[in-house]
Amino acid sequence: EDQVTQSPEALRLQEGESSSLNCSYTVSGLRGLFWYRQDPGKGPEFLFTLYSAGEEKEKERLKATLTKKESFLHITAPKPEDSATYLCAVQAASYKLIFGSGTRLLVRP
Amino acid sequence: EAQVTQNPRYLITVTGKKLTVTCSQNMNHEYMSWYRQDPGLGLRQIYYSMNVEVTDKGDVPEGYKVSRKEKRNFPLILESPSPNQTSLYFCAQEETQYFGPGTRLLVL
Predict the structure, then answer these.
(1) Which of B44, B97, B99, B104 is best to mutate for the A interface (most A CBs within 10 A)?
(2) C-beta atoms of B33 and A45 within 8 A
(3) Interface contacts A/B by beta carbons within 8 Å
(4) How far apart are CA A7 and CA A104, in angstroms?
(5) How far is CA A97 from CA A9, A101, B46, in A?
(6) Which listed residue, A77, B8, B45, B96, has the most CB atoms within 10 A of its CB?
(7) If we measure between CA atoms, which residue out of B38, B39, B57, B37 comes closest to residue B47?
(8) DSSP codes of every residue in B74-94
(9) Is the distance from CB of A109 to CB of A15 less than 8 angstroms?
(10) B98 vs A46: CB contact, 8 Å cut-off?
(11) Which residues of A touch B44 (CB under 8 A)?
(12) Could you report the per-residue pLDDT of B22-71, keeping only the tens digit for each?
């Protein structure tokens, strides 16, 4: 069964304290792995797509990496404006997207 | 500017009263989806459409219908809403991973 698990469920960081969010998955025929940011009351905002193990993508303080079983979203020197829920999803061979439950990140000044 | 719009943004209704949530995209893309988001369950796909007149069930299609008569629009129809359909709904244009702003639905 296709499945995506994100950990931790919630993470509190001090401004400048780097950390990583985990997304582990099982899927039949991975077409791609997606990371999103979601602010309260808004739709998910696309961040990255990763297609194959070993691939990395960066955007400002965020860096996403991918292995055959999991992906990490590394946050370097976070700022309060990075506070949000971060969602991970995998696209199966059928083109269906399967989402994890998300990690709620709070960055304190 | 790329956009996915949904209407209404908020809706309170009663059990059994048919409703439609509209979704429109301005990107001329083919692949669109509807999701519902519930606390602790994450985003779950309701229906998706790969092209005009091509729709298919996602993970939680019971109680919902969709139509795709033109590429731009992908409405979600609840023929007889029930309280367990109270949720936050998102329409998405999948080819560039662009989500709409959401529709918060309360069924009494």
Answers:
(1) B97
(2) no
(3) 45
(4) 10
(5) 20, 13, 11
(6) B45
(7) B57
(8) --EEESS--GGG-EEEEEEET
(9) yes
(10) yes
(11) 99
(12) 999 998 899 999 999 998 888 999 999 999 999 999 989 999 999 999 99
